[in-house]
Amino acid sequence: MDTPAAAVATAGDPGLEVLREGPSASTVALSVRNPEGLWSWLLSFLDRAEVLEPPEMRDAYCRHLESIVAGSVPDPASTP
Amino acid sequence: MSARRPKLTEGERVEVMLSVLPWLASKGGAPLREVAESFAVDPEVLRADLMKVFYDVEPSVGADSMVEVDIDEDDDDFVTVRLPGSFEEPPRLDHSEALALLAAGGALVAERGSEIALVPALDKLRSILGPRAAQALEVDLGGGDPAVRDLLAQALEAHEVVELHYFSWGSDEVGHRLVDPWALHSVHGHWYLTGWCNDRKAMRHFRLDRVLAASLPGRPVTHDAPSDVPRPLSDLGDVPPESQVQGRHVKLVLPATAVWVVDSHPLASFTDHGDKVEVTLVVTHDTWLDRLLLRLPPGSTATDDDGADLMPRRASAARRILARYRGVGHPEAGM
To answer: What domain count does chain A have?
Structure first.
């Protein structure tokens, strides 16, 4: 996440684990139970946040974005 | 005649009210001027506080537990007060009620700072409940760095300008703002600073968890707070008061089960169509609109003032995020 987004994310959820803090971006870790909830949270940061890993979560988020581009949102049950 | 006291703090005004109400009720009423002289307070402040008690203090159980206040302007501003029974009988709280009262009082003190009429009462309650109960209760309204909150409280007390390094959620911009602080509010679990933004030349609400840093440049405020500082109504943050909003109207049709999407936003209109709801919002920032569109649930539609479909805009916003993934990508993107 870039620095302002990371500041907002950690202020809103002090439980987030900050793995690395760089001058322009930070890496945070969180445990995810519901990918739909994660998508909604991530979307609120627009392109200021990026899923790094695990790769399957990164791919699933890209598919979610592609489905928005294509004009439809998949059934939540079909996402991992 | 008593000498009028200097300007009272909010806590002192509460203390005055707690004395004035039973005094008036037992006496059967008195002219406002006489009450003001007896308690050494400004008559207009007294009038405002009496009406505040009447209009703002909500009874917990039915209208018969309201404090009724009447000021008869045709009879020398004669004030009469009717108190509910709860004022006459000392309250008898069980343990859980006492804990609930302590929690609610703690939350109020956390929001308002030092509420002098309340703090001693809470201390007394805490001592009765014992140290374990007091330690078990920690009231945290959340949001924002406590050090920033303390610094803003200090600026408010000293009537000093604060400089904020602020992430404006609506415009998605990071910048410095010089603000004349007016009040700290806690709304829907988030702290806000309300004040005069010297950069925007207007009143603004700043959400504290979006303040990246704050400092005191050592300058006195130039715009004093109005007598009734507006509270933020929504989750927009850094927004002008609703009365000044000049934005475009966006109409959303949402599945009724997804109405929570707009729960925390001020709506210009709301129509219930059974399985769907139609809402109109005033949008002042394009980035904010992008966030809203991206998070719309399946089965939603969004149109602009002129009826234009906003879904292409939604697709563009998603494309911009995807570009981040299709660029160089990972290891430690952007670090």
So the answer is: 1
Our CA-based measurement puts residue B283 at a distance from the nearest CA of chain A, in whole angstroms, of 16
Contacts of B334 in chain A (CB under 8 A): 2, 22, 24-25, 50
B298 touches chain A (CB under 8 A): yes
CA distance B77 to B199: 45
Low-confidence ranges of chain B (pLDDT < 50): 1, 61, 236-238, 242-244, 330-332, 334-335
- What three-state secondary structure class fits B120? helix
- 8 Å CB contact of B322 and A66: yes
The one-character DSSP state at B130 is -
Regarding an ipTM greater than 0.90, the answer is: no
* Option in B174, B323, B330 nearest A4 (CB): B174
Question: Could you count the other beta carbons within 10 Å of the beta carbon of residue B3?
Answer: 6
Strand order in the sheet with B173-187: B202-207, B190-197, B173-187, B162-168, B211-215
Distance from CA of A42 to the nearest CA of B (A): 10
Provide the domain limits for residue A56. 3-78
* Amino acid identity at B71: I
Longest dimension (CA), chain B: 80
